[in-house]
Amino acid sequence: MRRFGTAVLLSAVLPLLPLFSAEKYANPALNPVTFHKPSAGKPLTLIRGGAPLFAIVCDLTPETGETAERNCVTRSRRSVTLALEVLQHALKTVCGKTAPVLTPDSPELERFAHLIVLGDNEMSRKLGFDGSRLVPDEFQVFTRGGSVVIAGFDGSVRKYYDKLDAPRLRVNGTAYGVCDFCERFLGMRYYYPKIGIYAPGVRDLVIEPVSYSDRPRLKFHYSYALNGKKVPGKRQLSDFSPAWRNGTSSRFVCSHTPEPRALAKAYPDKIDMLFFRSRAGRLFFNPHAHIGSYYDITNPAFIDFFVDELVAKFYAGDTEVRKAWGSSALPNSEYVPFGQVDTYVSDVVNDRSRAYLPESTKHLRHGSLSDLYAHFNIALANKLGERFPGKKLATSAYSSRTLPPVLKYDWPENLRLKLCMGCPVMVRSKSFRDAWKRVASGWHRTTGRPVAGYCYGVKIFAITRMIEGRYMGEFIKALGDDLWDEHLFFDAGGHDNRFYCSCYPAYRAMWNSDFNVSAAIDEHWELLYGPRAGKHLKAFYDLLVDCWEKRLIPSIGRVSDDYAIRGSVTPQQLYKAYDREIIGKLAAHLDAARRAVAPGSLEEQRLKFFAEPWKEQFDMARAGQAAAVPFYRIKRLNPGEKIAVDGRADEPAWGRADVCPMKDSCGVDRDYPQEPQCRMLWDDRGVYLLFTARGKPTDHPGEIWKNSDALEFFLSPGLGKKVFYQFAFNPNGDLYQGKKDLVDDAGGAFACPGLRLKSRYDDKGWQAELFVPFRGMSATVPRPYDVWFGNAVYARRRSKSSETLSASFALTMRNTHNVGLWGQFRFMGRGD
Amino acid sequence: MRKIFPVLTFPFFFAALLAGAECRRHTVPFVGPDERGEPFLIQNGEIGYVITFRYTNPTPSAAPSVLVGMPLPVNLSGFSRRDFTWLVVNGIDSRRLEPKKYEIFNSGNRAGVHVHYNFDGVKMIQTFQIRDGSPLLEMIWTRSGGTPPEEKIKTLRLHFNVMPCIAARKSDSYDREVVTPRGVSENPDRVRRKRLKLDARDVWLILQDAKYQAGTHPRAAGPVLLVPDWKGLASGNISFGTHQNVFADFTLDTGAECWRFGLLDSDKKRSNGQFREFVDGIPGLPVSP
Questions:
Q1: Using a CB-CB distance cutoff of 8 angstroms, which residues of chain A are in contact with residue B93?
Q2: Looking at the domain assignment, is residue A326 inside a domain?
Q3: Which of A458, B93, B133, B262 has the fewest CB within 10 Å, making it most exposed?
């Protein structure tokens, strides 16, 4: 009886043994994959004594020569080629040798006991691979007949691409499969390029029969372009994106497009029709920069022009119209993108728009124009659908139209929306999560379908940059089925490999939101830094996370839906949680790690790279904790004194004005050889500002926010912080004027009547005089000794690629709009 | 009948005369962390007052200010240790100004400090001084000779903030009273603050409390005395009731040469009756006309 029972048990269990042994390849630090019952067979000895005992088989024909060119297979889309490179690099690194590469029809195949077959080809199909059942980017890894097959849905093989596809579109299932294989079986880890790759030594490798597959949950699993710049070490992989599973199979694309200056240049006679004119008569077209223009979406003629001219001629191959779109998102074989210029305009009232501006949403910062844009988007989609059946309109719910509309509409089938909302790092706050869910599900209910996503990082603090990616999986889950699996973009302000602890889990979570971040991060410390330093760095990172989750998040409390859409953490909140004691402990952990690595070692190199951003962050924190509100006395012009505002600053009155001190906006101890200085004077008419800086400034006419040095001057009348005015100019004298209502959180471009600016520069220096009239700001003339809030910020920009250094009156922590940290200006009296 | 005040002219003896009047910078600033303070010790052999000019820092919601406090002789009660007096000239509050300079003087039988202000062209001097043998601290405002003639004083108001007889517990409500030569003004209706109009008959005011006569807090003392010189005053009011603070404000005569007040605070715990006796014994204290 006992023997019978044992036999029954064995007969039930034995067939499962291969599955159990395959499950041994499940690794919580890697992507969770789906294991299948493997084919029966013996274990495969792939490496013995440090020598690979197999050949690699692949067919690169679809990815080379005329075939590749015809099928738009660019370098980043050569899935099998990339897969081969990754595998060879891994072999070379772990055992010092590469494997021979053969084609599926090679007569040399018989010499090898084992093969690793890459991609969809004759041999992989013979071994049982069926690519027709896979979805884009999906891959399989399985053993059969003494071989290992690693193959996926590759766009290069399936002729997925066309010439209209954005470069980001790349479907590289096989490459992802090989990366997974190298991680799972060879022990490779791809944290970031060059020195961020970990490779163990492997002398022997035996693989049990195994079969598994994986595919991304989001079709768009990408972010900013990856690059190995600023990472020390030698380039090891020509393209790192497969290692991070970065790519997209979705053609959904949406940005601020068409680009207004390119469009205006191509259609100068249509500027009046294309751009919005306010009730006051101001035309929102800025020839010098992107911001400042605003398309007239209240005008039906705009819709006709967009579809019948821009879209139609684009698809017809008109090269001039192609230029008119600019260089941002372009129409492709599935989608036509439209995105309003990134300018905030709150007042778009006219006879055409009035009906779509409900009173109930008028004061919502993120919803005042939702109905107007719903009306516009639907009309645009309908027109597009009539003219181009099959094409879909891709547009965004952003800024003043982030919230769902309140009126009822019939949403056409060909309209797809991207919801721009949320900072994943805040996901542990229930208030934030609930707000996001309300907004996303509101859109789902309103339109009948889920929305694509666009979420934000908190770029200005190293603390948030280091940990925010770990919350991506939770963020995706928080949105649930209201998030369309087609697209989620993570706008973390660009990609910085020093914060790989964020990027790595974020990208993995975009592939699979169940990715075990803690296991992956915990595993890596010892791998990259050795056991001793790794222990201290783990303590460093764990303290960052702990403080965030247990101190900062609970301190935030309830926030409004409006705030949760784009809000995150203020410097005050951050530096209260990460107080001196915490900062001290973090610094101590880093110091301990430094002492634990051998000089000149690879671990030391990695540690230096890791530690690079932290001195500045600690300095910022300490400065933020100690920061007093800066205070400047604006002296009064005496009767009879005048300032000519000619840029010469030769009036004696300037000699009486105190210098307004400017230092690094983060409180970091930094020298500014330009010695930027501001001085101010006032009279009953307004404020006079004199700015000087030594040395030749960087100046690109028309550019204020990049590529040129600039001075920004902010004024907020009174102490109530109800509104502020912003004046920014470059050495050429190009000027931006803005106004923001801080109560409604609404604002945008603004014109201050009576304002005067004169800027002069040469090789020796830059000098500018600015006069801001009180009446132009609709502000009451201040009484003597009244105090306003304000700030002055000097931005030093050497070149397009260099970082901006900013010296500021107030420590605003790199966010010039951080009103809570602004300084005070007191208007002094006569005789002071 | 004794002639009026000014308190500055009456004989300078009261109890034993020990040492002469002296003013010097005090070593303890009595300000918060990160604040600047300008403290002055003004004393004679009998009593010492510390007047501080406390420079508060700007905050994300408030502008900085300079507050005049009297932390000694009694730290907790009496004339407010933080902010007990301020002058408003043509609508400009002296607390928004930074004094231009402090001048200590020790001359003969009086010592004190002159504090120079500029009220948008109107230059004023606030003087705190003490005389030999007198328990009173004198506060005098004068117009500085440096004021251009075209700068007119259109309005002048002076304010006091007083907290006599502080209780031990913060939550207690008070029973403030004001005693002048006219009599005792009480608060029978127990209102938070009632307003009493003052006139030239109120040549001195005792600010006291019916319930907490000597103050029950360990660092509190009894009533305080305020002696306005009505030669320079147009009108005055005092607000008192169940609230801890008593506010006195005076409209000053813009045509006067100077504006004078006598202040008396003492660290000796005295009941209301004892304090009244003490005041009655001050030589030269004016009587009501």
A1: 785
A2: yes
A3: B93
Out of A721, A785, A823, name the one closest to residue B96 (CB): A785
Q: Which of A56-60, A557-561, B17-21, B183-187 has the lowest mean pLDDT?
A: B17-21
**β-bridge partners, A787:** A826
Q: Is residue A431 part of a domain?
A: no
Return the structure tokens found at A537. Answer: 């760095």
A340 in the same domain as A231: no
Q: Would you state the pLDDT for residue B11?
A: 46
Q: How far apart are CA A456 and CA A464, in angstroms?
A: 11
> CA nearest A332: which of A214, A464, A167?
A167
Report the number of distinct structural domains present in chain A.
Answer: 4
The list of chain A residues with pLDDT below 50 reads: 18-19
**pLDDT score of A337:** 97
List of residues 6+ apart from A671 with CB closer than 8 A:
none
Residue with tokens 């999986």: A473
- Alpha-carbon span A26 to A19, nearest angstrom: 11
Which CATH number covers residue B99? 2.70.98
- Give a yes or no: residue A694 inside a domain: yes
Do residues B130 and B109 lie in contact, with contact meaning Cβ atoms separated by under 8 Å? no
Count up the domains in chain B and report the number: 1
Query: What pLDDT is stored for residue B17 in this prediction?
Result: 41
Dihedral Cα A79, A83, A86, A90, nearest 10 deg: 170
- Give the CATH number, domain containing residue A793: 2.60.40.1190
Q: How many CB atoms lie within 10 A of CB A434?
A: 15
B108 — pLDDT class (breaks 50, 70, 90)? confident
Q: How does residue B149 score in pLDDT terms, banded at 50, 70 and 90?
A: low
Note whether residue A183 is domain-resident.
yes
ipTM value, please give it.
Answer: 0.90
How many Å lie between the alpha carbon of B233 and the closest alpha carbon of chain A?
Answer: 26
Tell me: do A611 and A743 sit in the same domain: no
| CA A726 to the chain's CA centroid | 26
- Residues 43-102 on B with a CB inside 8 Å of A are 57-64, 91-93, 96-97
Angle at Cα A439 formed by Cα A437 and Cα A441, nearest 5°? 65
- A560: distance to nearest CA of chain B, Å? 22
pLDDT tens sequence across A400-437: 999 999 999 999 999 999 999 999 999 999 999 999 99
Partners of A830 on chain B (C-beta within 8 Å) are: 120-121, 151
Among chain A residues, the shortest Cα distance to B146 is held by A831
